[in-house]
Amino acid sequence: MVLKLYFAPGACSLAPLIALEEAGADFEGVRLSLADGDQRRPEFLAINPLGRVPVLIADGQVVTENLAVLTTIAHRFPRAGLLPFDHPALLARAFELLGVFSSVTHVGFAQVFRPERFTDDKAAWPALAAGGVKTVRAGFDRIERILKWSDGEALVGDRFTVVDPYALVFWRWAPRLEIDTADYPAFTAHAERLLRRPSTRRALAREAGLVAVGAE
Ligand SMILES: N[C@@H](CCC(=O)N[C@@H](CS)C(=O)NCC(=O)O)C(=O)O
């Protein structure tokens, strides 16, 4: 099995990077710099014409979109239990959250980070950003509610799934929207626990370029 993940420091690709580390996967990591525009270079656009990370190449198949990338990783490493494939009700809950994260919450952040994706009318950008913050806060409220109702250890069921590192990505982006994470104590406690996991530490080391290419 040959696995390759294209990721970028600070991007949503941290979620699949953590998932691969959590699974103990043998994979090649390809680190792009979004700030340097690596995602717009012809060689990367040939792989993903949208110019976005994450991209997973699994046995030659190009998989884009976090929802599909995370599901592919979870499916390939069943023993890691990264999605509850044998529990339909929990699986539905997991996809519900993955769907909302990728199509709503992430888009809320993009309204702030990348307003040009939505409109060329710069006069509309402040309103777009305000709407984005509102959307993100609604997502955080939902995460906070789930963690408060459960024992706070996981967003789906009672164990780690790929949903958790995806939420961690948003928690780490919150300060860039001037959202105070202290407003979300259960989410913050959960994020801090996730940050202590060895898989997260290894993924962040890869983001920081501390894992040599030859060692990947
Ligand atoms: N819907 C995509 C979004 C991917 C995405 O927007 N990735 C960002 C990083 S978080 C990116 O690559 N941005 C590059 C750019 O905007 O130029 C997914 O869920 O994977």
Structural commentary:
- The protein is of the alpha+beta class.
- It is built from eight helices and four strands, in the order βαβαββαααααα.
- It has a four-stranded mixed β-sheet with strand order 2-1-3-4, with helices on one face.
- α4 runs parallel beside α6.
- Bound molecules: glutathione.
- Glutathione binds next to α4.
Summarize it.
50% of the residues lie in helices and 8% in strands. The protein is of the alpha+beta class and 216 residues long. It folds into 2 domains: 3-81 and 200-215, Glutaredoxin (3-Layer(aba) Sandwich), CATH 3.40.30; 88-197, Glutathione S-transferase Yfyf (Class Pi), Chain A, domain 2 (Up-down Bundle), CATH 1.20.1050.
CATH architectural group of the largest domain = Up-down Bundle
Fraction of residues in helix: 40-55%
Ligand set: glutathione
What low-confidence regions span 5 or more consecutive residues with pLDDT below 50? Answer: none
Topology:
Blueprint: E1 3-7, H1 14-22, E2 28-31, H2 42-45, E3 55-58, E4 61-64, H3 66-76, H4 88-113, H5 125-149, H6 163-173, H7 185-196, H8 198-207
This protein binds glutathione.
